[in-house]
Specification:
about 150 residues; alpha+beta; Thiol Ester Dehydrase, Chain A; two-stranded antiparallel ribbon; 4 helices; globular
Length: about 150
C-alpha cells in the first residue's frame, strides 16, 4: 500500500495510528497518535531508554524533540489533502522545563499552509496541557502527491 493510500485509509477509518505504524522510528520511540475531540494528539510512552540525565531522571531533549516533530508531521499528513511525507526544512525546539519519566503528550497546529511550505507549531506536556514542557516551531517542504 502506498503512503497516499495509507493516509486515505487512516482518514476514512478515523484511525491516525495506521500512519504511525508505517514508521519504525515512531515504534522504537513509543510514539502513538490518537484523535481527541477531532485534534490529533501524540503520545510517547515512558521507557528507560528515553532518559537523558540519569541523575535527575529527566527525559532526553532529543526524545521530546522527536515527539514534537513527529506530531507536527502527522498533523500535516492528517489535515493536508493529497500530500506525500513532508520534508523537514528546520525545527526549533524551546525546552521549558524538564520532562519527567512518565508519558508525554503533544499536539500541533498548522500556522501557515502554502503550496510548497507549511509552518507548524507543536507543544508537549505531561500532566497538564496548559503547562508545556517544550514547544517547537517547524517548517516543512510539501511534496504534492502523484496521482
Amino acid at each position: 500500500m502506498s503512503t497516499l493510500d495509507c493516509i486515505r485509509q487512516a482518514r476514512e477509518l478515523a484511525n491516525p495510528q495506521l500512519l504511525v505504524d508505517r514508521i519504525p522510528y515512531a515504534k522504537q520511540m513509543g510514539i502513538s497518535m490518537s484523535l481527541q475531540d477531532k485534534t490529533l494528539v501524540g503520545q510517547m510512552d515512558f521507557s528507560q531508554h528515553l532518559i537523558g540525565d540519569i541523575g535527575v531522571g529527566a527525559l532526553h531533549g532529543g526524545t521530546i524533540g522527536a515527539l514534537l516533530e513527529s506530531t507536527a508531521i502527522f498533523t500535516l499528513l492528517w489535515e493536508v489533502e493529497e500530500t506525500q511525507m513532508p520534508k523537514t526544512i528546520n525545527l526549533t525546539v524551546e525546552y521549558l522545563r524538564s520532562g519527567r519519566p512518565k508519558t508525554t503528550y503533544a499536539s500541533a497546529e498548522i500556522t501557515r499552509h502554502g503550496r510548497r511550505v507549511a509552518n507548524v507549531r507543536a507543544t508537549a506536556w505531561q500532566d497538564d496541557p496548559t503547562k508545556p514542557i517544550a514547544a517547537a516551531y517547524a517548517h516543512f517542504l510539501l511534496v504534492p502527491a502523484l496521482p
